[in-house]
Specification:
Blueprint: H1 2-25, H2 48-60, H3 73-85, H4 96-101
Length: 106
């Protein structure tokens, strides 16, 4: 009886240790800092008015994007296309060089 109890205790410890190891391996990755200027899947830090000004400037430069103040995939695509046409780094983001090129930043 004593031997059976010891085996049962050892098995319980083994199972508990295995469960703890699996739990440690399945934790979520650490959160990352939000990206600025409306990264593709993040929230925009640009105001609606600034995004509308950006969209208007892109349209005045030959792109075609709705002026809705939303920094969505179509605006990012228009930005990337504009950057490519103007030999700028193609990020699809309203970076300093692109904003300056669009006369939206000094």
């Amino acid at each position: 009886m004593r031997q059976a109890r010891q085996m049962f205790t050892a098995a319980a410890i083994l199972i508990a240790g295995t469960t703890a190891a699996f739990a440690a391996d399945t934790t979520a990755p650490a959160a990352t800092a939000p990206m600025k200027h409306g990264a593709m899947h993040g929230k925009s830090t640009m105001s609606k008015d600034k995004v509308q000004a950006l969209q208007t400037a892109l349209n005045n430069s030959g792109e075609s994007v709705a002026v809705d103040g939303v920094m969505g995939p179509k605006t990012h695509g228009a930005l990337k296309d504009y950057q490519k046409k103007n030999n700028l780094k193609q990020t699809g983001q309203p970076d300093r060089a692109t904003l300056k090129h669009l006369n939206l930043q000094s």
